[in-house]
Amino acid sequence: MTSPSRLQKDDFEALSEFRYQLRRFLRFSEEAAQSEGLTPLQYLLLLHIKGSPGRDWASISELAERLQSQHHGVVALVTRCVKAGLVTRTPDDRDKRLVQVRLTTLGEQYLHRLAQLHRNELQSLSGVFQVSYISAFNDRD
What we know:
Layout: H1 9-35, H2 40-50, E1 57-59, H3 60-67, H4 71-83, E2 87-91, E3 99-103, H5 105-130, H6 133-138
Antiparallel strand pairs: 1-3, 2-3
Helix pairs in contact: 1-5, 2-5, 3-4
């Protein structure tokens, strides 16, 4: 069994650059959401609902996992989004314990505008993320 190679200066530089670019993107995302009158978490909630694989809704538990948040915090977030007209919340037809959270037309409109901005920003950063931090380590092994 071989021991992992010792980290070199360029490893720290690569990790630092990756974290810097990641933080720049997250800051862009926060500011874009706020410019639309949404909180960053509201934008992420809308994104994760629309991004649910194979369906047009998400459960509270799925959203909690995607947001890496506590169940009760997501319930409160969904409640705020319902009041803002961004989402609806309905019990599942088969399992009344399951709540389906769906985008409203207004929520869709916000999401599409913000997702377009995010896609453009990611495209502008694509060269930065082409060289991955992990590949820098793999090259040494």
